[in-house]
Amino acid sequence: MTEVYLARYGFHPQRQVPVAPSENEKAISVADFAVPEKRLAIYVDGAAFHVGERLRRDKWIREKLRKGNPPWTVVELRAKDLKKTDEWLTRIM
C-alpha cells in the first residue's frame, strides 16, 4: 500500500532494506524503505513502539548510520507523516 502511494510521486524506494554504517560492515538495522544507491534510509515509527530502550536503541542506530562512511541520510517519519507526503518527499528529493 505505501509503495503504491509513494509511486504516485515518482518515488520508488526498496522495502525492508538491511543497512550498515559503512559498505564493509554488517547491517545494524533494517530500514522500512531505502534507496541504497543514494544512501537514503527511511524509518516509519509508531509512537507506541518507540519508547524507552527501543527509542534509545533506534537513536543510536540512526546516528551511527548518519556518521557512516559514506554517511546515510536518515529520514524519520511517524505514520501520520505519510499523509503529508508532498512535504517530506520534497525535502529529501
Low-confidence stretches: none
Mean pLDDT, all residues: 83
Q: Structural class, from secondary structure content?
A: alpha+beta
Supply Rg.
13 Å
The count of DSSP E runs of length 2 or more, i.e. the number of strands, is 4
Helical amount: 25-40%
Order of helices and strands: HEEEHEH
Shape by Cα distribution: globular
Number of helices: 3
Please explain how this structure is put together.
The chain is of the alpha+beta class. It has helices at residues 2-7, 52-66, 85-92, and strands spanning 14-19, 29-35, 40-45, 73-78. The protein is 31% helix and 27% strand. A 4-stranded mixed beta sheet has the order 1-2-3-4, with helices on one face.
Using brief descriptors, characterize the structure shown.
93 residues, alpha+beta, four-stranded mixed β-sheet, 3 helices
Summary?
With 93 residues, the chain is an alpha+beta fold. The chain contains three helices and four strands.
List the helices and strands and how they pair.
Blueprint: H1 2-7, E1 14-19, E2 29-35, E3 40-45, H2 52-66, E4 73-78, H3 85-92
Parallel strand pairs: 3-4
Antiparallel strand pairs: 1-2, 2-3
